[in-house]
Write a structure and sequence with these properties.
- The complex is a heterodimer of chains A (417) and B (134).
- Chain A contains 14 helices and 17 strands.
- Chain A is globular and about 75 Å long.
- Helix content of chain A is 39%, strand content 16%.
- In chain A, the strands form 5 sheets. Chain A has a 7-stranded mixed sheet, sandwiched between helices. In chain A, strands 13-14-17-16 form a 4-stranded antiparallel sheet, with helices on one face.
- Chain A folds into 2 domains: 136 residues, Aspartate Aminotransferase, domain 1, CATH 3.90.1150; 254 residues, Aspartate Aminotransferase, domain 2 (3-Layer(aba) Sandwich).
- In chain A, α2 packs antiparallel against α10, α4 packs parallel to α5 and α11 runs parallel beside α14.
- The mean pLDDT of chain A is 95.
- Chain B has one domain: Sufe protein. Chain: A (Alpha-Beta Complex), CATH 3.90.1010.10.
- Helix content of chain B is 43%, strand content 20%.
- The longest helix of chain B has 18 residues.
- Chain B starts with 7 loop residues before the first helix and ends with a helix.
- The model of chain B has no long low-confidence stretch (mean pLDDT 91).
- The chains are: A alpha/beta (417), B alpha+beta (134).
- Chains A and B meet through α12 and α13 of A and α1 and α2 of B.
Chain lengths: 417, 134
């Protein structure tokens, strides 16, 4: 794909799975917040790697080992540019965003958080950016505080943020975009305030990096975590961005081969960044696929991805709000600028599992449950579970229509108006 | 969908569940949650001479879980603790009339698991391995 006007049908043609059927019906894939589908270019890049230049990196003095090393490093450089980091030394490849956040909580947190210290998290975190901080707090005897939501249960309260920052937390953990509410947080302003209070900032970018332009230098956060599989790339690889000076000061969690510069019987010294944090053989095929995914997103243009998703979200909100007994959560039409393509909803009188089961029968894949955000869903929104649709660049308005038709079917079965 | 999980009788049991509500003077009660989907259930049993005289459940869940709790509680009234101990996943399929498939299995079996745990607890016995797989 070269840069041209956005054409959803042309995009769809790049994704083989969108030509398949589920339960005999054309697949309508609306669980993109869980994982995204993959274009041919990503699948082919991985297959081509294994077919033509599979070799271990940083070691072999032969042609294909060099090719593999270059491909691995190129992938990091692509990601560095994609999020506007300073250098690829600031990009550590991990298993996924959760793994990246755990690296920070265990290594940085392990060394810098102590008894009585405060850790501040938002009330709309995925378990991935919540549990590691709970565990750290428990282990260290630190105090975990929460940034509350506004009365609309959609945005973070700036008043609460300001109050909590007065406790001078060591670190603030906040999601860029909520996987339940779809709210895009103003992480730049949160970071500015947090830094003013002497705190470090970690941003969970799992739901933002795939869907909008991310500039980590503009945000000025200290850490930023991502998963490749949510951004058209393969499963099993993700990344931690961190400022170089911070990475320099951090100790690796996993030690062994490739992360070491020299070893004698009595001593060792760490390798350069980012390799210091990547012990053992890396997921080279995954990195190659991740790089191909970034190429694909760049070719489409992140601005166009965001614009398309905003339009389809607007259409879906309109159709859902017109549907009786459907209630949507998070920002509404007026808050569209700060909402990504995620809509959590409930259908009065029907459990979300039943909704998604009946939609499954119509070939529609949506998520139902607590979305790995139990405190938000059960304690703030007061729901046992929610249904959720989440869009990506290949979704069409006609797929939203199919969802609405299927919801009507659910209502008929459950005899609801 | 290979089978219609939402046949008329399932919806009927969901809308008008049997044995749903509170119970005073229960001999034993047990609570369980399905962390995955947020379903929760509490089972209360009245037991006399090792026979289930009455049973009630409370909780929140999908149609499959509410319908199977309804049918299960109907079924176990008058049964002995020994009979309850012997029940397994196949008993659930028999009672509800179908195998809901792997994705919804837990919805269908949560009530039996809770019921069996209550029966074991009443006798101060450890929960057996088969029950733990429900």
């Amino acid at each position: 794909m070269t840069a041209r006007a956005f054409n959803v049908d042309r995009v769809r043609a790049d994704f083989p799975i969108l030509k398949t059927k589920m339960n005999g019906k054309p697949l309508v894939y609306l669980d993109n917040a869980a994982t995204s589908q993959k274009p041919y270019s990503v699948i082919d890049a991985i297959s081509n790697y294994y077919r033509t230049y599979n070799a271990n990196i940083h070691r072999g003095i032969y042609k294909i080992a060099e090719e593999a090393t270059v491909a691995y490093t190129d992938s990091k450089i692509k990601l560095e540019k994609f999020i506007n980091a300073n250098s690829m030394q600031e990009i550590v490849y991990t298993k996924n965003a959760t793994d990246a956040i755990n690296l920070v909580s265990l290594s940085w947190g392990g060394a810098n958080v102590g008894r009585g210290d405060h850790i501040l998290v938002s009330s709309m975190e995925h378990h991935s950016n919540l549990v590691p901080w709970m565990v750290l707090a428990k282990k260290k005897g630190a105090v975990l505080d929460y940034i509350a939501l506004d009365k609309d249960n959609a945005r973070l309260s700036t008043k609460s943020l300001d109050e909590q920052l007065e406790k001078r937390p060591k670190i603030v953990a906040v999601t860029h975009a909520s996987n339940v509410l779809g709210t895009i947080n103003d992480v730049k302003s949160i970071t500015r305030k947090a830094h003013g209070a002497g705190a470090m900032v970690i941003v969970d970018g799992a739901q933002s990096a795939p869907h909008m332009k991310v500039d980590v230098r503009d945000i000025d956060c200290d850490f930023f975590a991502m998963s490749a599989h949510k951004m058209l790339g393969p499963m099993g690889i993700g990344a931690l961005y961190a400022k170089k000076g911070i990475l320099d000061s951090m100790e690796p969690l996993i030690t062994g081969g490739d992360m070491i510069r020299s070893v004698t019987h009595n001593s060792y010294s760490w390798n350069d960044l980012p390799w210091k944090f990547e012990a053992g053989t890396s997921d080279v095929a995954g990195a190659v696929g991740f790089g191909a995914a970034i190429d694909y997103l760049n070719a489409v243009g992140m601005d166009k991805v965001r614009k398309h998703e905003k339009e389809i979200t607007k259409y879906a909100l309109k159709r859902m709000n017109e549907t009786r007994n459907v209630r949507t959560f998070g920002l509404d039409m007026k808050g569209l600028e700060d909402k990504c393509g995620i809509i959590a909803f409930s259908l009065k009188g029907v459990h979300p599992h039943d909704v998604s089961q009946i939609l499954d029968g119509e070939g529609i894949a949506i998520r139902a449950g607590q979305h790995c955000a139990m405190p938000l869903v059960t304690e703030i929104l007061n729901e046992n579970a929610l249904s959720r649709i989440s869009f990506y660049l290949y979704n069409k308005e006609s797929e939203v229509d199919k969802v609405i038709d299927a919801i009507d079917m659910v209502k008929k079965k459950f005899r609801i108006e | 969908m290979p089978i219609d999980l939402y046949a008329e009788d399932i919806i009927m049991y969901y809308e008008h569940p049997h044995n749903k509500g509170a119970m005073k003077d229960a001999s034993v009660s047990m609570h369980n949650e399905n962390a995955l989907c947020g379903d929760s259930i509490t089972m209360r049993l009245k037991i006399k001479n090792r026979i289930v005289e009455d049973v009630k459940f409370e909780g929140d869940g999908c149609a499959i879980s509410v319908a199977s709790a309804s049918m299960l509680t109907d079924f176990v009234k008058g049964k002995s603790l020994d009979e309850i101990e012997r029940m397994n996943v196949k008993s659930v399929f028999k009672i509800i009339g179908f195998d809901p498939g792997p994705a919804r299995l837990k919805c269908a079996t949560l009530s039996l698991r809770t019921l069996k745990e209550a029966a074991f607890a009443y006798q101060h016995k450890a929960v057996d391995a088969e029950t733990q797989t429900l």
